[in-house]
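Chapter review: from sequence to fold.
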Amino acid sequence: MNATSFLYLFVGILLNAAAQLLLKAGTLKLGEVTLAPESLLQTLGSLATNGPIMGGLCLYGFSVLTWIAGLSRVDVSIAYPLLSLGYVVNAFAAYYLFGEAITWQKALAIGIILIGVYLLARS
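The C-alpha cell string follows.
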C-alpha cells in the first residue's frame, strides 16, 4: 500500500470517527432516542434540528467519498480491517471528551487491534 492509498483510507477513518463523536454529542443533547412508531416523526424532527447530529451525518458523507477513493487503490481485504483504527481513535477521544473509561480490557484490545492493523498493512 502506498502513501496516497493509506492517506485516503486514514482520512476516511478519521472522518468516520469524528462523525461518531458528533453523533454521540448530539445524543447527549437529545437524551435517549427511541424509534417507536408513534413518536418516529417527532424523533426525526429532533434529529434533523440537532447540529451535532447533522454535522456527524455530513462527515459520514465525506468519509464515504474518501473511503471510495481509498478502495479504488487497495484490496478490500486490506482496507476493511483498517476501519478498526476508528475504534482506537474513538476510545481515546471518548475518554477525553465524554469521560468514558479505558479499562485494562479495552487497552489490551486496542493493542491487539494495532498489532493486527500493522500486520495487515505489511501484507
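Two observations follow directly from the output. Residues 3-30 form the longest helix (28 residues). Residues 3-122 form one domain.
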